[in-house]
From TrEMBL:
<dbReference type="GO" id="GO:0019171">
    <property type="term" value="F:(3R)-hydroxyacyl-[acyl-carrier-protein] dehydratase activity"/>
</dbReference>
<protein>
    <recommendedName>
        <fullName>Acyl-CoA dehydrogenase</fullName>
    </recommendedName>
</protein>
<dbReference type="InterPro" id="IPR029069">
    <property type="entry name" value="HotDog_dom_sf"/>
</dbReference>
<dbReference type="InterPro" id="IPR052741">
    <property type="entry name" value="Mitochondrial_HTD2"/>
</dbReference>
């Protein structure tokens, strides 16, 4: 176990511009008419501040090589495990935006699936020099495992039965995954390169992006409750979704908060989320 405590407190500042192009691309992916909203929809700040890395500076998995802003943890499997977001003010389209990032924690853990490092990064997003969003992201680095992660066919032990206020579906296929990778300039091969995903990382299929699932959660919440102003949102990925999985998007909504989740048709919970809002 290597100590990466000297990376804690490292900072990075990136500038961008909130143009409509990635918004229109994501609306097309969601089968929506291009509405050209005055403000960025929630979580669409993820389409900016993207790492523009030359091909020679990519690792085997398609991600930028480690050791720039993030610590050079040698474990090959990496994933975005969850986030906690506070929405302070909307980001208008066609504004100058800035993201200030800081590494808050680097923790080593030994879990059921082996050794892991958890890196927590805080992003502060500014629009025209006013703080708009504070987000903490959890990034997980996992050790190599040759064990193929097969999707369960029967009712899993962690299946949950919950009351819900709405239940939605959104079909996923390899083209959807490729298009989302394109919108986010995400080269991670587990989302589009089936031989790599199955033979190198041991997955049974292409992996659905965690941020895409989180976006579907908020997207369908806003479809059901368009007038509610979201103030906080947090999500945690608990099981992977693959391109061959059928899943549903659920919401259980109270007066000022709610629970959202992604659940496969076999009952397995894949993502859990909490949302807070006001009228």
């Amino acid at each position: 176990m290597e100590n990466y405590s000297n990376w804690i407190g490292k900072k990075e500042v990136l500038d961008d511009y909130s143009d409509h192009r990635p918004v229109a691309m994501m609306q097309a992916l969601l089968n929506e008419e291009n509405k050209l909203p005055a403000d960025l929809p929630h979580l669409y700040h993820w389409f900016y501040f993207l790492p523009l890395v030359n091909g020679q500076d990519l690792a085997l998995d398609g991600h930028p090589k480690k050791g720039g802003f993030l610590p050079p943890i040698p474990f090959p499997k990496r994933m975005w495990a969850g986030s906690r977001l506070e929405f302070i003010k909307p980001i208008a389209a066609h504004q100058s935006i800035c993201r200030e990032s800081e590494i808050l924690k680097v923790e080593f853990k030994h879990g059921k699936s082996g050794d892991m490092y958890f890196v927590t990064v805080q992003h502060s997003i500014y629009a025209e020099n006013e703080l708009a969003i504070i987000e903490e992201q959890d990034i997980v680095y996992r050790d190599v495992s040759n064990q193929v992660q097969r999707a369960p066919q029967k009712q899993p032990e962690n299946a949950e039965t919950k009351a819900f206020d709405y239940k939605k579906s959104f079909p996923i296929d390899p083209v959807t995954l490729f298009r989302y990778s394109a919108v986010t300039f995400n080269g991670h091969r587990i989302h589009y390169d089936r031989p790599y995903a199955t033979q190198e990382e041991g997955y049974p299929g292409l992996v659905v992006h965690g941020p895409l699932l989180a976006t579907l959660l908020i997207h369908h919440f806003k479809q059901e409750y368009p007038d509610k102003q979201i103030t906080h949102f947090e999500f945690r990925a608990v099981n992977p979704v693959f391109d061959f999985d059928d899943f549903q998007i659920y919401g259980s909504i109270k007066s000022t908060q709610g629970e959202l989740w992604i659940q496969k048709d076999n009952g397995q919970i894949c993502m859990k989320a909490k949302i807070s809002f006001k009228e």
